[in-house]
Amino acid sequence: MVDKQQWWKQLWCDVAAALVFYTCLPIPWAITLDFERVSRYVPLVGLLLGGILGLLDAGFYFVGIPVLTRSVLVVVSWIALTGGLHLDGAMDTADGLAVQDPQRRLQVMTDSATGAFGAIAAVALLLLKTAALSEISSDRWLSLLAVCGWGRWGQQIAIARYPYLKPTGKGSFHKAALQPRDILLGLLLLLGLSGLKIVLNRDAAIHAVVMATSGIAIAFLTGAWFNHKLGGHTGDTYGAVVEWTEALLLCVLTVL
């Protein structure tokens, strides 16, 4: 009995640490948390984040805010809840990839100053998310859950599959903590989300299948593309995988 209680306590502390690390949600005892295992729980963090965004979107709808303005508010809230962590990584990655010399790319990515290509990447991501979300008229909350979850599962895949290019970087501990079962559990959790789509609407089976297969494919491909360009990943590219997977999957969901 004691072991089970200790296990639940450890699980709660690890999830709380992941929320503190990846979001701006206030956790009162954040100073005492251990952040070594946060990469195990990123899909769950994504689902929690998507749930909050879905509730915000429902609240905006309830007070009569038009869909485009509502989508802008949701995307802005999206950035606020994460502190721009992943967007900043996507911007730094874009600046690095703009450099022709592969040997200088990592050096440019560590520069805190935002270049032109980083700004362009940020604008492109925000426009894609806002426009795509504006085109989704039903089950917006489920779409937000899906893209936030699959984006972070893509981060797990990038952590597990590809070398980390900065042994002393902030993200170096992610790879050591992540285990294959964590990726599998995240996958099952997100596939269950597609199953929920079918439970809510039996006629939406094709939609659910496409949402799941697109999430898997985009999550794999974004990580593979950045690995192809850089020969591995950094904390910045992990953020870029999250952002581009979210944006591209939202675009796919508009077709459905």
Model description:
This protein has 256 residues and is mainly alpha-helical. Helix content is 75%, strand content 0%. The model has no long low-confidence stretch (mean pLDDT 91).
Structure characteristics:
single chain, 256 residues, mainly alpha
Structural class: mainly alpha
The quaternary organization reads as single chain
Largest sheet: none
How much of the sequence lies in strands comes to under 5%
Mean pLDDT: 91
Number of beta strands: 0
Based on Cα principal axes, name the global outline: globular
The separation of the N and C termini measures 48 Å
Order of helices and strands: HHHHHHHHHHH
Low-confidence stretches: none
Radius of gyration: 18 Å
Q: What is the fold's blueprint, element by element?
A:
Blueprint: H1 2-22, H2 42-62, H3 67-82, H4 85-97, H5 105-109, H6 116-135, H7 140-161, H8 172-177, H9 180-200, H10 205-230, H11 235-255
